[in-house]
Write a structure and sequence with these properties.
203 residues, Fumarylacetoacetate hydrolase, domain 2, six-stranded mixed beta sheet, 4 helices, 13 strands
Length: 203
């Protein structure tokens, strides 16, 4: 399986990082080795002094497809989840400045937290899903899918122009504002509405 990540999909996070608003989605990949294993803590890698959390809604692909029209995109996923796109921000800034790819900052081991998934039929509207991240019991990130620049179906249309989507692939749909550094002993818990989707400890 592969993980397809979308960058800069929430206007407030674009402002926070002083990035330009994109005219098309920003796309990068994480390999399957970046998935944090269940019940394991996240170890801050030695090559970064500024690993930040990015809480994101996830879409799990259930059907093989290529060049999927957004009208039909809803047939390619049944479940929505929540996860974290861990980012070595210091390293990413250096790479960005040099115009180099971001993989070392985004695709390292453990950088993809994939929490549980639930049926999309549980949501009244996919473009109105509230989610949040708590760090040590305090809410640090809050988002709603209504604020995404590109909705799930539009993202599927866009990314499937470039990559064949396969069963089990996961799309990380971008983070809202509030990204911040994690420190040893922090506990991060992700919620959709009031339901917990993951909880992890930082080491
Ligand atoms: Zn992200």
């Amino acid at each position: 399986m592969k993980i397809i990540c979308i960058g800069r999909n929430y206007a407030d996070h674009i402002t926070e990082l002083k990035n330009e608003k994109p005219t098309e989605p920003i796309v990068f990949l994480k390999p399957d080795t970046s998935i944090l294993l269940k019940k394991q803590p996240f170890f801050i890698p030695e090559f970064s002094n500024e690993v930040q959390h990015e809480v994101e809604l996830l879409v799990k692909i259930t059907k093989v497809g290529k060049h999927i029209d957004k009208k039909f995109a809803h047939k390619y996923y049944d479940e929505i989840g929540l996860g974290i796109d861990f980012t070595a921000r210091d390293l990413q800034q250096q790479l960005k400045q040099k115009g180099l790819p971001w993989e070392k900052a985004k695709a390292f081991d453990g950088a993809a937290v994939i929490g549980k998934f639930v049926s999309k039929s549980r949501f009244e509207a996919l473009d109105n899903i509230s989610f949040s991240l708590k760090k040590n019991e305090q809410v640090v990130q809050k988002g709603n899918s209504s604020h995404m620049l590109w909705q799930f179906d539009e993202l599927i249309e866009y990314v499937s122009k470039y990559f064949t989507l396969k069963i089990g692939d996961v799309i990380f749909t971008g983070t809202p504002a509030g990204v911040a550094k994690v420190n040893p002993d922090d506990v991060l818990a992700g919620f959709i509405a009031d339901e917990e989707f993951f909880k992890i400890r930082i080491k």
